[in-house]
Write a structure and sequence with these properties.
mainly beta; 14-stranded antiparallel beta barrel; globular; 56% strand
Length: 304
């Protein structure tokens, strides 16, 4: 099992030094919404925890989340932006166990902006316009207590005013639970092809993430999850993501995270999760100091 995971990690790592679209200038990728956090749990952990997915709602950004779908689950997530954000970002997800060892997963994202101020080539105001983007994802993965793997395929499109672009990409990941105290994981997301936009060549927002999670049991009721991940997108510098979660009987969770990003400022994020019966609820808040505000994340899922 460990050899399989090591082979996968080396393959993923090799992507960091290959490919036409890996070393790009800042802002050099299209459809950046595919790198935005969707799950409140991930947002509360500042993106950390690739080796320790905890909610099926993480499927759209971490294919390894299919490993936690022990029952069929459908849910909705919404991001409420602070100042300078979009008008609407909604995601729907569905995880369905197949037999005793596998899961299929699906996700849909929609991002919309309205009333954007237009400017011509001379900087003069023109009429307002809108922009929207959406994506469809389908994946397949394993469910195991030791080694897990998952892969998914995505189609995305983005329209700004009257110009539209398309993207086809794949995500894949693997994780290895060493023992009851440690787990390692790695994945790549958005490896694929983006169409031209206004005759300009575009690059997909390819990203790599790898990390380790420690599990600290407290008596019989509490469990502490501590994650440290390295993350890099094709047009950013390497980032260090740190997150912690305190779980009580798998019913109540308190989360906090911090990301060290050389490209931009960040602050402490946080949130909580509640499971009551077959209903799963999560909330998170992620500050955006540059905009004097932050984003709220809300998700609710139903198991059946």
């Amino acid at each position: 099992m460990f050899k399989k995971f090591l082979s996968f990690a080396l393959t993923v790592g090799s992507l960091a030094f290959a490919g036409e679209y890996w070393h790009l200038d800042p802002g050099g990728v299209t459809m950046k919404f595919l790198s935005m956090r969707v799950s409140p749990r991930t947002a509360a952990l500042s993106g950390a925890g690739v080796a320790d997915p905890g909610r099926v709602s993480e499927i759209s950004r971490n294919p390894l989340a299919m490993s936690v779908a022990d029952e069929a689950e459908f849910g909705l997530s919404q991001m409420i932006f602070g100042k300078g954000g979009a008008d609407n970002f909604v995601s729907a997800y569905y995880g369905l166990p197949v037999g005793d060892k596998y899961t299929v997963g699906f996700a849909v994202d929609f991002l919309g902006y309205d009333n954007i101020e237009g400017r011509d080539e001379n900087g003069l105001k023109t009429s307002e316009y809108g922009s929207y983007a959406w994506s469809l994802l389908a994946g397949f993965g394993s469910r195991s207590k030791i080694f897990n793997w998952a892969a998914s395929a995505r189609f995305a499109t983005q329209t700004i005013d009257d110009e539209t672009g398309f993207l086809f990409s794949v995500d894949a990941g693997g994780s290895f639970r060493v023992n009851q105290y440690f787990a390692f994981g790695a994945n790549f997301t958005n490896l694929g092809f983006a169409s031209k936009y206004e005759s300009e060549k575009e690059a997909a927002p390819l990203a790599l993430q790898a990390g380790v999670t420690g599990f600290i049991p407290i008596l019989d009721r509490w469990m502490i999850h501590l994650s440290v991940d390295a993350y890099r997108r094709a047009d950013t510098k390497a980032q260090l993501l740190i997150g912690g979660e305190v779980v009580y009987y798998d019913m109540l969770s308190f989360r906090m995270g911090y990301a060290i990003r050389p490209d931009t400022e960040d602050a402490i994020s946080g949130g909580l999760g509640v499971t009551f019966g077959r209903v799963v609820f999560d909330y998170a808040y992620s500050p955006r100091p540059a905009f004097e505000g932050g984003n709220h994340y809300i998700a609710i899922g139903v198991k059946f």
